[in-house]
């Protein structure tokens, strides 16, 4: 209780101090504007992307570990199966250490992705997994444990150190301003799974501020934050009302996934973009979900691309401490040599994307 009392106090102060400095914001996109934007796009299919040699967002984006050759190699595999979008997490600490260098690396990534015909969804903040982190060399993966080294952004620092608020605002505004008209960016996913890690509504102040900062910059790309859990009602309501286009996560079987779509997602009248799905052992697979999404022109972005340091071939709640390969991978499509986990899946993806 003490932890969350401290968080509540910090959130209240956070909201009070940041509200005083708000500038004029543009309006949320109407459904007409959102649908006009979406109508110009092909059906979008892709993956949440982290290079196989990075354990987390920091290892991907820090100067000493950013690997353009690895990214180029892996995005060529994505192009080869018809994928045309990737969702990629940023991290404010990599920017904080070296703002100019960070933005140069983002531009390099966009050059590579653009060469392969791939648009990018960039994620700014995230409430998932480890809540502490530091710059520099990142930890080695823990054998058989899903996302053992993934880090939140900004994590507990946003609640415990109010001096961070100004820095976060500078980060969001600098990145959005620098790439606000880059057509290789599909959209800005401002906050991944707000309320995760037991935070619930304590994430609301930062979520609100991030949308506010984004609207002040007014990029040409839409702003969104994906709905991911039905019982987070206040967060869900805010996200749906304030997103220019509707993004969401669903790792359920097709019948449950379709109920989500029918029961509340389509009611906004805006385009739908599924930014996370596909957990084989939970019944969310390429063969049963991807065709359903294509039929409704819902963008399909599955979690995971190349098996690597993230260990996302292992299930969330089923660690394999000996590091043995599970018979059925939880996420991911390719091995590090470019061969697929399941050739039939790759054939289906190519068929659906028009590569076959």
From TrEMBL:
Alphabetized UniProt keyword annotations = Signal
Say yes or no: keyword Signal present: yes
- Top-level taxon of origin: Bacteria
Task: Tell me which InterPro entries the record gives.
Answer: GH, Glyco_hydro_2_cat
| UniProt protein name | 1,4-beta-xylanase
ATP-binding is among the record's keywords: no
In this chain the Glycoside hydrolase family 2 catalytic domain maps to 171-283
Q: What range does the record give for the signal peptide?
A: 1-21
Organism of origin is Chitinophaga horti
């Amino acid at each position: 209780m003490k932890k969350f009392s401290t968080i509540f106090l910090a959130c209240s102060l956070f909201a009070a101090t940041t509200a005083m400095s708000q500038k004029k914001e543009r309006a949320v996109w109407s459904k007409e504007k959102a649908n006009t934007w979406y109508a110009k796009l092909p059906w979008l299919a892709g993956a949440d992307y982290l290079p196989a040699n990075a354990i987390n967002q920091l290892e991907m984006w820090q100067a000493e570990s950013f690997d353009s050759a690895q990214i180029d190699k892996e995005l060529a595999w994505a192009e080869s199966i018809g994928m045309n979008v990737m969702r990629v997490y940023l991290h404010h600490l990599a920017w904080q250490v070296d703002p100019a260098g960070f933005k140069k690396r983002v531009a390099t990534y966009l050059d590579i992705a653009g060469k392969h015909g791939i648009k990018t969804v960039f994620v700014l903040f995230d409430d998932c997994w480890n809540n502490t982190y530091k710059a520099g060399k990142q930890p080695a993966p823990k054998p058989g444990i899903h996302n053992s080294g993934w880090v939140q952004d900004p994590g507990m620092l946003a609640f415990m150190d109010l001096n961070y608020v100004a820095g976060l605002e500078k980060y969001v505004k600098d990145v959005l301003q620098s790439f606000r008209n880059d057509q290789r960016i599909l959209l800005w996913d401002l906050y991944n799974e707000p309320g995760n890690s037991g935070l619930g509504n304590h994430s609301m102040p930062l979520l609100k501020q991030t949308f506010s900062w984004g609207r002040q910059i007014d990029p040409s790309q839409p702003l969104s934050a994906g709905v991911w859990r039905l019982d987070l009602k206040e967060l869900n309501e805010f996200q749906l009302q304030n997103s220019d286009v509707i993004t969401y996560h669903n790792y359920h079987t097709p019948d449950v996934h379709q109920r989500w779509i029918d029961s509340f997602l389509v009611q906004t009248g805006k385009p739908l973009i599924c930014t996370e799905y596909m957990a084989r052992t939970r019944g969310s697979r390429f063969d049963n979900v991807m065709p359903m999404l294509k039929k409704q022109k819902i963008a399909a972005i599955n979690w995971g691309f190349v098996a690597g340091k993230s260990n996302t071939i292992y299930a969330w709640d089923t660690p394999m401490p000996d590091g043995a390969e599970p018979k059925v991978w939880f996420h991911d499509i390719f091995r590090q040599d470019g061969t697929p986990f399941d050739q039939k899946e790759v054939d289906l993806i190519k068929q659906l994307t028009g590569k076959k």
